[in-house]
Amino acid sequence: MYATIPVYYPSLEEASRRNEAALWCDSYNINMDCRNFIQDKAMTAMNSRELDSFIGELVRFYGVERAIYVLSRTHPVFRLGRAVRSGRA
After folding, report:
1. Positive or negative, the Cα torsion across 40, 43, 46, 49?
2. Phi, psi of 17 (to 5 degrees)
3. pLDDT above 90: residue 15
4. What does the pLDDT look like over 45-88, one tens digit per residue?
5. Its pTM surpasses 0.85
6. What gap in Å lies between CA 64 and CA 88, rounded to an integer?
7. What's the rounded Cα separation, in Å, for the pair 41 and 80?
8. What is the pLDDT of residue 83?
9. Would you say 30 and 38 are in contact if contact means Cβ atoms under 8 Å apart?
10. Of 48, 58, 75, 76, which sees the most CB atoms within 10 A?
């Protein structure tokens, strides 16, 4: 579905300077769709032991690069490459 559309990494400000704001907006919307897909289906897949199927579907729809990018930006476990413990400094 979106697996072949590249992730747009520069900021919106940089995209505007390059006259590529539309590319940034498209990438952002796909990123949000990917985030919603993960939020909606990940826990169900884990609880029903269908995680392999979920990951396959995620990669098929969004590609590995976007899935990792979205997880690194939105999920606390993936931030800074380490688990984040709530309530601890």
Report:
1. negative
2. -60, -35
3. yes
4. 888 888 899 999 999 999 999 999 999 888 766 554 444 455 55
5. no
6. 31
7. 24
8. 46
9. no
10. 58
**Cα 81 to the center of its chain, rounded Å:** 15
SS3 60: helix
For residue 2, count other CB atoms closer than 10 A to its CB. Answer: 19
Q: Which residues 6+ apart lie within 8 Å of 37 measured at CB? A: 58, 61, 62
Tokens of residue 44, six digits: 């169900």
At 22-34, the pLDDT tens digits run: 999 999 999 999 9
Tokens 């992730």 locate to 7
3-state helix, strand, coil in the chain (%, to 5): 70, 0, 30
